[in-house]
Structures
1.
Amino acid sequence: MTAAIIDGKAVAAELRGEVARGAADFAGRAERKAGLAVVLVGRDPASEVYVGSKVRMTRDVGMESFEHRLPAETTQADLLALIRRLNEDPAVDGILVQLPLPRHLDAGSVILSIDPAKDVDGLHPENAGRLANGLPGLAPCTPLGAMLLVARAVPNLSGLEAVVLGRSALVGKPVAQMLLSANATVVVAHSHTRALPDVCRRADVLIAAVGRPELVRGDWIKPGATVIDVGINRLAPEPGAAKGRLVGDVAFGEACAVAGAITPVPGGVGPMTIACLLRNTLDAARRRLSIAGEG
Ligand SMILES: Nc1nc(=O)c2c([nH]1)NC[C@@H]1CN(c3ccc(C(=O)N[C@@H](CCC(=O)O)C(=O)O)cc3)C=[N+]21
């Protein structure tokens, strides 16, 4: 069997088109554009690239982008003071603090300080709790993107077995909650799980989110399964090359021979993450407008 490739780049472009239409409608009703503030502390080169494309795509869908680039030496107090200002700024609907933060800063308390109504990363414990309890709120972007790609291959998850590899607060836990809400039978596997290949082989839907390059081999996959590869790992450069290759958590070539459908890296979940960030910003803006009684 040769797996169908789920084209995350194309699905993300479609979603950004929908968001652009929604953003235009919002701007008409609110008499202002929806706004996303991105906070980047320090000069991590990978983060610079992500923030650059977030800013560009935010403007492309007709939203306002507010960039805050702070020096690596920024203190916790200064960062918290900025978040407080953004929480109070009526032009800001979404706040994203790019992670990881420099080591002297405490990401947990920074996330706690974000107004949950503006937490478009879905990382505030209030939003994590809302997701776990099936209440409306803002959900993390990468899991949302992964679920939209699952839906392309498997429109109905009811009764299927889903295995999530990884238990992070950013991806593994929230995606497990979403699969459960969609009536899948969910197993969350991690570094302590015994007989990992056997556990993975049960999966009708396998979500790999551990950040270990090509950990999942072809023979870990149930024939015909849907494989969503969340990992983005840069390998060491080949001699003479400036940059190493990007690979996922799944050995793509081997997996293609077994799976029914699979997402590539790059061009899979990555582009969906940014598109879902824009969608969350639009959702947050609409909700804030209706709470203000203008909508
Ligand atoms: N608060 C916070 N929220 C995040 O969502 C967040 C973050 N911090 N810190 C960094 C990670 C990483 N991340 C990616 C987004 C898009 C691509 C993406 O579009 N990747 C392209 C390829 C990019 C390339 O070529 O390097 C792809 O997979 O096709 C990748 C990674 C969001 N993150």
2.
Amino acid sequence: METLTEQILRDTIRIRPDKSHKGTYGRVCLVGGNAQFGGAIMMATEAAVYSGAGLNTTLTDPVNFVSLHSRLPEAMVADFHDTEQLEQLVKAATTVVVGPGLGTDADSLTALETVFKTVTPAQILIIDGSAITLVADKSLTLPKARLVFTPHEMEWQRLSGIPISNQHNDENEKVRAELNGIVVLKSHHTRIYTAKGTYLNPTGTPAQATGGMGDTLAGMVGGFTAQFTDLENAVLAAVYTHSAIADELAESQYVVLPTQIMHQLPRFMHEHQALK
Ligand SMILES: NC(=O)C1=CN([C@@H]2O[C@H](COP(=O)(O)OP(=O)(O)OC[C@H]3O[C@@H](n4cnc5c(N)ncnc54)[C@H](O)[C@@H]3O)[C@@H](O)[C@H]2O)[C@@H](O)CC1
Ligand SMILES: Nc1ncnc2c1ncn2[C@@H]1O[C@H](COP(=O)(O)OP(=O)(O)O)[C@@H](O)[C@H]1O
Ligand SMILES: [Mg+2]
């Protein structure tokens, strides 16, 4: 297992060429946020926007439209119950993030199944939170796409069948290979399983142990993968950055809020950008 270093930032975060526009930096489509968990998709969306994704559209329950827009006018919104619109927006995306605050009721399942039916092999699909729980509970067939799973240990237990106490590298890698994607197994020592290798994230702090922290990471993975070309590096850099910013803030804070992390992204990415 390789331990990540700051090098992953220089390998991934690019100095932007002058000759570029919003279309250059990818389209993220985020699906989630039922009436109970609107905050989750708002945090994921805000994290994608602050990561620098060029265009961001959020499909959520309409009860979340006003609150999302009032804090984040940069994002576009649509109703996740509208299957036709969901299909259109998924088709247009570079990266789709599904699951933060999606919930597990019949409407949530319909939205997830529509995403799975619509996404194509060239597209990146980040499967987080409730979407992981639904895949496990309903034994859903995964689509052919560039898949990235972001489970915490309990979600990984549901999806992989491996109890938390037995989540060792060999067992985890075996299930990752079956899933045919990248797995970000989140914990106090997050490990990332890819076809090329297994990585340990050395950054992170218990000050991060608060609701919405993973929703924020899912949005960042969305933003990074939509704009940086190497999928594996983009995922690794997002995981490293999320917790490295938390470490900085935890030097003077008892708890670090997800919204504080995302607001540091433009500054942190500026400090770590590099030429190819
Ligand atoms: N503000 C919001 O709207 C929030 C919405 N959320 C959404 O709520 C839905 C349910 O997700 P939850 O994760 O809360 O519920 P889950 O039921 O999926 O998992 C939480 C349970 O897993 C246990 N657990 C064991 N190991 C863990 C680990 N390493 N990390 C985290 N939990 C671990 C926890 O103790 C807890 O009992 C998701 O869609 C999620 O996105 C949450 O992210 C919380 C914030
Ligand atoms: N003690 C800890 N040390 C380091 N990172 C932590 C710790 N506790 C939680 N985290 C991080 O916080 C995030 C929690 O994700 P998740 O449980 O999905 O949150 P939520 O669904 O509430 O948004 C993960 O990135 C995890 O690595
Ligand atoms: Mg989560």
3.
Amino acid sequence: MTAQDHDLGASGATGQGGTGESAPCPVSHDRSDDRASAPMVEGDDGMEDALALVGRRSPTSPGRQEPSAPGRDALRGRRRGMPWDEARAVASRAGRAGVLRTQRDPLAASLGRVLATPLTAFVDLPSFDTSAMDGWAVAGPGPWTVMSGDGGLLAGREEAGTLADGTAVRIATGARVPPGATAVIRSEHARTDSGHLHAQRRVLHGQDIRPRGQECRSGDRLLAEGTLVTPAVLGLAAAAGYDELLTVLRPTVEVLVLGDELLTEGLPHDGLIRDALGPMIAPWLRALGADVTGTRRVGDDADALQRAVTESAADLVITTGGTAAGPVDHVHPVLRKAGAELLVDGVAVRPGHPMLLARLAPGRHLVGLPGNPLAAVSGLLTLAEPLLRRRSGQATPAPYRASLRDEIHGHPQDTRLVPVVYRGDKVVPLHYRGPAMLRGIAAAHGLAVVPPGGGRPGDELEILDLTWPPSSEGCFT
Ligand SMILES: Nc1nc2c(c(=O)[nH]1)N[C@H]1C(S)=C(S)[C@@H](COP(=O)(O)OP(=O)(O)OC[C@H]3O[C@@H](n4cnc5c(N)ncnc54)[C@H](O)[C@@H]3O)O[C@H]1N2
Ligand code: MOO
């Protein structure tokens, strides 16, 4: 694996609490000063950081930096990647390439998939005039003669006869309102006296009656195709008369975890570290709309990787690690050997720039996530998310933006993805956002998309939402 040591940050933490929010930054100041006083901050741009630390940053580049002069990058021997937006568009197009597989299933099995056809009401809702309250159905002006009976009108019972003018009958919430009734009076708003009902408030015509078709008419389009089937959608579908739904099957994904240095349990020791991506990537993929068929550990064995990639039946193969140029970084050579077409080979985003997207076969793709854990998250949201969104039939939402509270230093040319939390109507960047760190993202509500040059307080930045669904299954976003 490639040696990489540019996650400054954990040492010298100044103890701002668990999430490590950035302190407010009222004045623009040089990042090298940040480093000296608070080495816990970002540290994700190798050379940039090194320059800042040794104080060789140009004095003209505090805070928001202009893109650097052409040729500067070449001097550093860096390869520029595809712009972040473009890479996402390529991934989205790749997700459109396959045919969407649809299946009709009972409601419960459709949760977390996407509607393949619009949800159209089979019935009027409500499908009869219904009482909204427990009380009395009355006809005409009061006082009313109370119709005696066996406890009144209940939900789900047979239809009652016509209520004559000047009469009242007890009625339960959800019961059919009898023909002739002009209003329902809540039990707490009326009293009975010698067989007569007296209203204690003014009675309005039609009050507390839900008229047939109030919510929808049979044939109305309730939800568009492409809508994610959430628990609320299941409820609405049932209410509208559905037993089954036609949904798009979730694309299948297999995860291949590379790296001989990874332990699956216990404490890190002797240069070995815990595999942080195995436990993280599969559930995250499920939340993005994928059906994860398995997570396999492949180690640093090129032949094993070759076999795993070519033999996988999944729509999408995700690899972690091995994307860079180290002696055991096998992803590129294996893709070459497999005759894959590289659609994205590096993205101008920090962290995560060595991420890649390849077409293995028509409708089958591979996303190579960098091994550094936050860089892997960046790859997941930059390439896997748009591909899976399309491949699972979900519509692309308009980008969500929020106002930045504190300054975020930018990369001169690349987009940065920075973990943030919401505080009121602002987003606040978190510390511990180096490419090897998960401490920031684990506490984050979203990832701010910081354009080259950085973000200043008040800037409206695109936010990639990380809000987790309340379901422990984590199968829909
Ligand atoms: N000569 C260059 N070296 C590197 C470059 C570069 O452009 N030129 N890019 C650096 C960047 S940026 C990143 S990110 C990494 C990406 O490297 P790989 O995708 O090849 O990943 P590895 O080398 O396999 O691992 C990097 C790092 O991450 C740790 N790792 C890997 N897998 C896991 C895991 N499942 N759980 C926890 N940690 C993991 C691994 O031990 C390494 O420390 O390359 C840089 N180098
Ligand atoms: O900074 Mo690398 O971009 O750690 O992914």
4.
Amino acid sequence: MREKRTRMKIALDAGQSFIGNPELCGDLLPRQCPSLPPKKSKGISNYQVLMFSGYFIIGLTIFLVIILLLCKRGKTKEERANLLNKEASFDDSFYKPSFTSGEYKAGLSKSGISAATESGMVSSSLIVLTSPEVNGLKFDDLLKAPAELLGRGKHGTVYKVIGEQGMTLAVKRIKDWTIPSNDFKQRMRRLDQVKHPNVLPPVAFYCSKQEKLLVYEYQENGSLFRLLQGTQMGQVFDWSSRLSVAATITNALAFMHQELREDGIAHGNLKSSNILLNKNMEPCVSEYGLMMVDNDDQSSLSNFGANSAFKADIYGIGVILLELLTGKVGQNNGLDLAEWVLSVVREEWTGEVFDKSLIREGAREEGLVYLLQIAVKCVNTSSPEARPSMNQLARVINTIKEEEERSIAVSIVSEP
Ligand SMILES: Nc1ncnc2c1ncn2[C@@H]1O[C@H](COP(=O)(O)OP(=O)(O)OP(=O)(O)O)[C@@H](O)[C@H]1O
């Protein structure tokens, strides 16, 4: 070998070409000597040793890289699992939902809750808030569970979902989200810290770029809206029960407004379909804090800045009070009902406003009129600054309720 190299050097130095020169090419540069028949080597040449070593090193490197990648992937999964446990959340990244239930197909999957991203995968995070009832709830549980459409509102669709552990949930799929995702997550965490027995807390929420879901416990006794519709078909909903509903929800909302004023979180979409009746038939305010503000009287609130959401809630509760008094349900955020009541009151036909069943029942006129007066103040669109605060409203309604109870007690005692 050394001898051949020396000969090659000599040949180069002498300006000779070694192409075609068998003496000079030998087995050093076989491909550069096309005219030569390949020389048969005896045993393994140095070149082959070098070549095999190269293959071996490349193979070993690829093997080590694969091992390294596999280790790294395992570690990431472990870290993620730890993080998720810590946060009690479920990350179903790369989970492709399988729709197993026929009912589900008729509900959630049809609605697109599959949350398919551009890549066809689901990148999601279901945050379970502090609720023992749904411990262990996973996003894929929701996707696979049978679901039934409860209704479609202005801001989305609500499904009744039966979870694997037998829990019944209401899942609201929100459309036209107005709150940035991060703000919304913050809101939900803040709301989870402020609890009132008559405010229905979300038990979990899901927030991705494509999909926003809110999970509540299903309330089997329907809503105040449905109860009022029932009265139009002759169902009994007496005056003291109506006053009790009014007092309970205003007390709950006064508490929420007080606790969340600094955070600027009002209800945002207050109406009778968002007042649900729990298993004890007690009213509960649902969907608190979901919407920034949703009210047709919003234009009249432009000067109220951060306070406008709270002012809008007063309008919303005003309409609910009018519904309780009239037995009619408001349309277009209660604007039609509020306008009708205001026009009747202006004409001084106040008596015409009240639900006939209340008059028949013998509800005290004083109480009815007091409640009407305060409700009218709540729906004042020409000077929203004159609307009472939720706290003032709660105090007035509690007083009316106490007066009613006292007068009922007096009439019972004075009965012969
Ligand atoms: N947790 C729940 N339990 C039982 N029924 C519910 C629950 N949440 C909502 N619903 C009912 O589902 C139906 C649809 O609700 P949704 O909130 O979509 O209607 P909406 O309040 O009229 O509209 P929106 O809130 O979008 O303006 C309503 O009848 C509502 O009372």
